[in-house]
Amino acid sequence: MSRLRNGFFVLSAGWLLFLLEPLSSTGLAFPFFVVTFALTVLAGVVSLALVLTGTPVSRLGLLAWLLYPLAACALLFLFLYSQSPANPLFRLRFQLSRSALDDAARAALSPKPLATPAWVGLFPVRRIDVHQSEVRLVSDGCGVVDECGLMYVTRPAPAGRSKTRLEHLAGPWYHLYSVF
C-alpha cells in the first residue's frame, strides 16, 4: 500500500506540474477543459482519501491537497472568463516568450512568413493571420468554438471590433479573443 500511495503522489505531482501549461495558456477550449477539470477533481478526491486514511493524518498532506481545489477553481475561472493578462502564470509565459514572439511577428510581416503550426517561445501557434500591420498568432481554442491567441499591432489597436476582444499586454502586444 505504501508503494501505491507513493506512486500516486508522484503521479499527482506530475499532474499538478502539467496543469501549469493550461493555466498559463491564452485560453481553454471546452473539450480540453472538461477532461482536465474532471481529472483534477478525480485526482483531488483520491489524494484527499489517501491523506485522510494515513495514520496519523498528515498536516503537510492536507496543505498539499489544497492545490487541487485551487487548480480546479483556476481552470473553471479561466474557462468561464477567458484568459486575463492579469494572470501571473500567463504573464510569466508571455514575458519568457517575448523575444521569440517579436521575431515571429517581424517574420510574419516579411515576404517569407513562418510555417505553422509551430511553437513560438512557450506558445503553440496553430495559425498566423497577417493583415497590413497586424499579426494574429492564434494558439488555442476558447470556450466552445472561439479562438484565443496573441496579436501584434504596430499602430494603435482599432477600437469597436464586434467579434474581437483585445486586452493590452505590453508594447505592441495584445491578448486576442476572437469570437466565432
Task: Give a written overview of the molecule.
With 180 residues, the protein is α+β, with helices and mostly antiparallel strands. The chain folds into two domains: 2-81; 88-178, no CATH class. The protein is built from six helices and seven strands, in the order ααααααβββββββ. The chain has helices spanning 2-18, 20-23, 30-53, 59-65, 67-81, 88-109; strands at residues 118-120, 123-125, 127-131, 134-142, 146-153, 164-170, 173-178. The strands form two sheets. The protein has a five-stranded antiparallel sheet. The mean pLDDT is 85.
Layout of helices and strands:
Layout: H1 2-18, H2 20-23, H3 30-53, H4 59-65, H5 67-81, H6 88-109, E1 118-120, E2 123-125, E3 127-131, E4 134-142, E5 146-153, E6 164-170, E7 173-178
Antiparallel strand pairs: 1-2, 3-4, 4-5, 5-7, 6-7
Helix pairs in contact: 1-3, 3-5
- Unreliable spans: none
Q: Tell me the radius of gyration.
A: 19 Å
- Characterize the overall form: elongated
Main beta-sheet annotation: 5 strands, antiparallel
Biggest sheet: strand arrangement: 3-4-5-7-6
Kindly report the oligomeric state of this protein: single chain
* Fraction of residues in helix: 40-55%
State the distance separating the first and last CA atoms.
50 Å
Briefly note the structural class of the backbone.
Answer: alpha+beta
| Strands, total number | 7
Proportion of beta-strand residues? 15-25%
Query: How are helices and strands ordered from N to C?
Result: HHHHHHEEEEEEE
Number of individual domains? 2
User: What is the count of helical runs?
Assistant: 6
Average pLDDT rating: 85
